[in-house]
Write a structure and sequence with these properties.
8 helices, alpha/beta, 277 residues, globular, disordered N terminus, binds D-galactaro-1,5-lactone, Rossmann fold, 31% helix, 7-stranded parallel β-sheet, 15% strand
């Protein structure tokens, strides 16, 4: 009789087909090679060029505004990592199309095709109008800092409706600033390393129960604006910190004016963007 496999030898594969939207974007390119380990087939979608499919990949371009294309895109998909859409503050119309109509199309497609779980790239800009000297949690009221933040707030609420009504689970990730390194003093508090991003997404894909959850996507930085205690059940533990970048970041950026709204509020420059028309 053979002995059972040790935990370390168990395959990480949890899904037959996983869909990654926004796969050509900054974080999509980071997650593309990393998510392959968790599924037999990684379906990649974007409006931008994705190159050719590697082994175990499928490339399916789709515009989020195109409902029929999204319904086809979700066919045979077990779970979704949804990074697609406009990822910064800007004029309302593109945000309406990609982030509001687009996220509705995604959830409708998930309902029709039977996808069970969505990891939704929300944003810290859902609460960007809290001050930088406040510590907030995912249970505090939303205070979006622009059209982009409002669209992510819509996505989080839509996800809650689809969980309550149809049982589709969503982990809403209020991602801070996920770049190779913090770009400025604000990002010493908001930085999410790429390795922690992967840990966060994988935790949300594999947690036994997600329901409708909201969690801030942030590394274990010394400066803390976000308390994720209410999202402990997701099992995400950040391992990186912005601290090794502090000296260089502070030397690069002079001391800031504390009365400037972009310094006062968590959303930084987003709180002063616009008007656009
Ligand atoms: C976001 O939501 C953006 O997608 C990203 O580009 C960063 O600007 C980030 O927020 C941030 O707050 O730094």
């Amino acid at each position: 009789m053979s002995s059972p496999p040790s935990p370390g030898s168990l395959s990480p594969i949890r899904f037959h087909r996983l869909l990654l939207t926004g796969a050509a974007g900054g974080l999509g390119r980071v997650l593309r090679p990393r998510l392959k380990a968790y599924c037999e087939v990684l379906r990649l979608s974007d409006v931008a060029d994705l190159g050719s499919a590697a082994k175990g990949e499928e490339v399916v371009p789709a515009r989020l505004e195109d409902r029929a294309a999204l319904t086809a895109l979700l066919q045979g998909v077990d779970a979704v990592v949804h990074l697609g859409g406009v990822s910064t503050e800007g004029p309302f119309d593109p945000i309406l199309q990609a982030n509001i109509i687009g996220v509705y199309n995604l959830y409708e497609a998930a309902r029709i095709q039977g996808a069970k779980r969505i990891v939704f790239a929300s944003s810290n800009h859902v609460t960007g109008f809290y001050r930088q000297d406040e510590v907030i949690s995912p249970t505090d009221p939303m205070r979006p800092d622009g059209f982009y933040g409002v669209s992510k707030a819509f996505g989080e609420n839509l996800a809650r409706f689809y969980f309550n009504r149809y049982g589709i689970e969503t982990a809403c990730l209020r991602i801070g600033s996920s770049f190779p390194a913090p770009k400025d003093r604000r990002m010493l508090a908001t930085w999410l390393s790429f390795d922690d991003l992967e840990r966060l997404v994988v935790a949300c894909l594999t947690a036994p129960v997600v329901g409708h959850s909201v969690i801030y996507g942030v590394s274990d930085n010394r400066a803390r604006w976000w308390d994720n205690t209410s999202a402990r059940h997701l099992g995400f533990v950040a391992e990186d910190s912005s601290e090794p970048f502090r000296a260089e970041t502070e030397a690069r950026q002079p001391v800031l004016d504390p009365t400037d709204p972009t310094v006062m509020y968590q959303g930084g420059a987003f709180v002063r963007a616009g008007p656009f028309d």
